[in-house]
Amino acid sequence: MTLHENEIPVDESVVRSLLKAQRPEWADLSLSPAGAGTDNTMYRLGDDLLIRLPRTSGNGESLRKELDWLPRLAPLLSCPIPEPVHAGTPTNDFPLLWSVYRWIDGDEARPDTIQDWASFGADLAAVVRELHGIGLMGATRAGELSWYRGGGLEPCDEWISGCFDDCRSTVGSELDVDTLERLWRAALALPEPSGPQVWLHGDLKPTNLLVRDGRLHALIDFGGLSIGHPDAEHATLWDLPPQARQAYWDTVNLDTPAWTRARAWAIAVAVSGISYYWDTFPAFVAECRARIEAILMDATAR
């Protein structure tokens, strides 16, 4: 499944060639697809390893920061995060950086893996507070650690306004795009956040939250790792049921402006996802639509 115009094709034969060239001791291990997101294609290697291959050159740069920073962040968090074990280099078959991590057992966060969503929301909030409380270790919001979601909303306004127009022409009357745009503009009217910048995971959606025995076990996919203001970190809460969202809010003790900006980021990611992936990734579009429906229902309830 190709999602981007400049995507680098990859299949099992490409992965085998990379292993033979750079880690021949792994070349004969079992290999099976382990999912594909918007940025990476993944394969499980044997029982204990995971290979991630970026779809585009831009995605490839995100691997470098994971290799640099995840080993430093891991000892400071109470839940597992990916452990890099090999930094792959470009070849003729695959001209980008790639990486291998320890496999982390667990299931995605979803209704059949979680029974107590309130406890899950509180657990997620506790881990997010841990991450946001880690010292910056000399890092700054620059270069690969300056992802847009840790900044202000205003620089995204022109782009997101175009996405609202796209959504009107695609989903049409099925979603209340006018209300979404009103909520976006209400957040734009707020002062910019003034608190300290923190470490951000960047994309804490359910597919990046691993569950074991019904409880949060691990955070994965730190491709959006950055330093910035924390509001955007909370945006994926609208991918979770209301009980989880309320427990998270209570645990983190978010004020109304932070919540309003977090909701605006949730809207931005959802409408831009619909706009960009409408013709190529229907499953992701469905995720974005579900998030929007939750936002609209939540806004009505409040």
Automatic annotation (TrEMBL):
Keywords: Transferase. Coiled coil: none annotated. One of its GO terms (molecular function) is transferase activity. Its EC number is 2.7.-.-. InterPro entries: AGP_Transferase, Aminoglycoside_PTrfase, Kinase-like_dom_sf. It is an enzyme of class 2 (transferase). Pfam families: APH. Gene3D superfamilies: 3.90.1200.10, Phosphorylase Kinase, domain 1. Residues 31-265 form the Aminoglycoside phosphotransferase domain. It comes from the Bacteria. This is Aminoglycoside phosphotransferase family protein.
